[in-house]
Amino acid sequence: MCYYKSIKTILGGGGVVAEFAGMQDVVSWMHLLELVEEHFPGLEKEEYQNGLKTSILQKEALVVKMGGIVVGALAFSRNEKELLFLAVHPNYRKMGITQGLIQKVCSLFEKGTQLSVITYREEDPLGLAARKLYLSLGFEYGELLTVFNYPCQKLIYTIK
What we know:
The two termini are about 20 Å apart. The protein has five helices and eight strands, in the order βαβααβββαβαββ. By secondary structure, the chain is α+β, with helices and mostly antiparallel strands. It is about 30% helix and about 30% strand.
């Protein structure tokens, strides 16, 4: 488990823990998804929810919760070494939740492992905040891709 000093300070010492998601988190995770779904072109909710349940069973889904509500979520693939989904509730952004989730997922891999994430291309205004965040965390530019008929780019991070 990871504790995030920045959030702990903001909440007056209450502390926030990133943990593996459980089946009890599916409904709250899907509510978070509804708040941010415009940032995920080609997303099919029913298919996504089925994949989420699989990720939970495989211990490839992390959450940060406040008051029992999922306010940060990260799904990843151990085999592909890829971040598949990352979102933070709009009311809880800029509190270190994203950094904490990425720190936690990195702790699950060996040093030297390269993790990737597929995000918007540089010129796409929908991806400005996400790209800025990933690059500030040390992700580097990777190949240009098209996913769900949408232009994207892979970013790569080497775990130190």
